[in-house]
Write the structure tokens for this entry.
Amino acid sequence: MIIPESIKNRVDAKMRALKMKFWSSFISIVNNPNISFIFVITNKQNAKKFSWQPKTILKRSYLKALEHFVLQLKKLNRKGKILVESDASQDLYLIQAHSRLQAIGTSNRKVLAGEYRSMVTSLSLVNKANFDIDVQIADALAPIAGVRYAKDFLKKKIFSDKVALMKTLYWPPR
């Protein structure tokens, strides 16, 4: 980028204002108590101990995430949408988990199939090129889930208020 010296200060001021507006909006969305973030982190070492194949990890992780999502919806007496970034190698497992829950409900029977169908109003697979804000926020927060995993599971000394508030599932169980 080439900026003439005569307008550099104005451009800098506008860029700073845009950054501030972006981060203010981003933080207000992330801190909104009506929005929940669910991350499933798979401990690959434990998965190997259980002889899980990559597709087993995907199947169980998606099922666990969707079960947790619908349990949150039930607890809060709300309906919700599932919006994920499409990945051709994984979409099938997500759709299978969604279909299973629509057919038989959660494994712990706390949410029946009909309740699931009523609470989960849609499943959307979107491409990165759509620039959906939901996917952008999830992409931005994914590293924080890794930090939370390092802090809680690996017992590394890390602290952040939002990291402490995030709901993270560990799969497979310890």
User: Anything to note?
Assistant: The chain has a mean pLDDT of 81.
